[in-house]
Amino acid sequence: MKNALLLGGTGFVGAHVCEKLVRAGWSVTVATRRAQNAREVQHLPSLTVLEVDVHDASALARAAAGHDAVVNLVAILHGSPAAFNRVHVELPQKIAAACASAGVTQLVHISALGANAQNPAALPSLYLRSKSQGEAVLLASCSQLALTILRPSVIFGAGDKFLNLFASLQKLFPFMPLAGADARFQPVWVEDVATAVVKSLERSAPGVQTLEACGPGVYTLKELVEISAKLAGVNRGRGRPVIGLPNWAGQLQARMMELKPGDPLMSRDNLASMQVPSVATPGMPGLEALGLQPAALEPVARDYLSQGSPWHDLLGVRLRSHFR
Ligand SMILES: NC(=O)c1ccc[n+]([C@@H]2O[C@H](COP(=O)([O-])OP(=O)(O)OC[C@H]3O[C@@H](n4cnc5c(N)ncnc54)[C@H](OP(=O)(O)O)[C@@H]3O)[C@@H](O)[C@H]2O)c1
Q1: Which domain holds residue 23?
Q2: Ligand 1 within 6 A of 112 CB?
């Protein structure tokens, strides 16, 4: 049985990757900062939870020992330049070193659509620049590995913090002021991303593949907000009026959200990221290169958005306290 070490295996995408790897016959170790974060996946057979500080290079190398593969799903959406650098650039560097010292032969790294390892400085946000630098670090240091860099557009699926969030906001408020309304996305289903990770691990010869992970449809942010309301049955499926904000008002809204304690719903850096269309690049290989036909958004999202769940109630409580 082959062994994989997952970093970020407790998150939204990570939980799906854990399940698919276990089903495919892998033995999985989930490295997490806090064991209790792994409660959603700890019941899976052939899965072990390891509490470890992944930023400690020696602890990471010890964790990697005995594994054939490493999958890196760690990322942040908000933070200082130093925080982005630590998580998106220094951590991949430490992962590359840990793979080399532990004899790991396969690495799958989840980046983001819009990243550009050749020219990070040209990108408008800390998120995309640091993701690009992380890719560059791996490309420079992983020549002995079978390395896959996967760049997803926004990811949807049960438990996402994207369509669920838009639907919940429209349940709470009579209209939706929306920054970045014209930004374009090509959403991809979380199950397709998880399958892509497993399929990428079928490759074992040294070399790099960079793949974009996109679904079949391109939407503006405004269209996605409207679809989320329709599928969740908000206002009998009619949704709420969505009012696109001019750039100055979007910046002001994001600034005010950043002032609240905790992770903001939207930051100025998120807005900056949306200047780069999150859609497939002509000529770049996508999930089809792995033999996958990515699922369309609406049939899948209808399934989970139309069902009330304790998760929706919790999100509603959190949103109410956020706007109080
Ligand atoms: N979700 C999307 O729409 C989307 C779109 C494009 C790309 N991606 C990429 O896909 C990957 C997975 O995304 P996701 O949505 O599953 O993320 P997520 O739910 O936020 O999970 C990220 C994981 O990273 C770990 N983590 C967070 N902050 C950390 C820190 N400061 N130091 C160390 N570990 C930390 C956490 O693990 P522990 O708490 O257990 O340590 C967490 O489980 C990321 O690389 C993300 O950039 C996601």
Answers
A1: 3-154+189-213
A2: yes
Q: Is the CB of 186 under 6 A from ligand 1?
A: no
Q: Measure 160 CA to ligand 1 centroid, in angstroms.
A: 12
Q: At what angle do helices 126-141 and 91-102 cross, to 10 degrees?
A: 20
Report whether pLDDT(117) > 70: yes
Looking at the structure, tell me whether residues 178 and 308 fall in a common domain: yes
In a domain, 284, yes or no: no
- Backbone φ and ψ of 150, nearest 5°: -110, 125
Compute the distance between CA of residue 134 and CA of residue 289 in angstroms, rounded to an integer: 23
For the question of whether the overall pTM of this predicted structure is more than 0.90, the answer is yes
Is 286 inside any structural domain? no
Q: What is the mean pLDDT of residues 86-90?
A: 98
Q: What is the DSSP string of 300-315?
A: HHHHHHSS--HHHHHH
10 within ligand 1 shell (Cβ under 6 A): yes
Q: Are residues 204 and 140 in the same domain?
A: yes
Indicate whether 208 and 315 sit together in one domain. Answer: no
Q: Does the pLDDT value for residue 42 go beyond 60?
A: yes
